[in-house]
Amino acid sequence: MLKHFQTHSLFQEYQRLANLPVLSAVDEKRILKILKIAETDDLLDTLITEFEDSLAQKEGFLEEKYLEYYKDQSDKLKFFIKNLSESS
Q1: What's the pTM?
Q2: What range defines the domain where residue 57 resides?
Q3: Which of 9, 25, 34, 57 has most Cβ atoms within 10 angstroms of its Cβ?
Q4: How many domains does the chain have?
């Protein structure tokens, strides 16, 4: 588990990267690395989840009219990934 100041620093970096209009390949790798770290750091995971939820709410993505669409898209993606992994 990271020290709180390390977690806070990583979270600030994640926020900065997540707010960029376009990510470079280096930025993408860094976000993935931070998300990987968050898998084992409960505080970082919670901070990122709350941040992402607030962004989704701010942009209106959590409105009732969109939720069914997102569920359908998620189901399609899961089906695609499952079929892709079975064919490999």
Answers
A1: 0.65
A2: 4-87
A3: 34
A4: 1
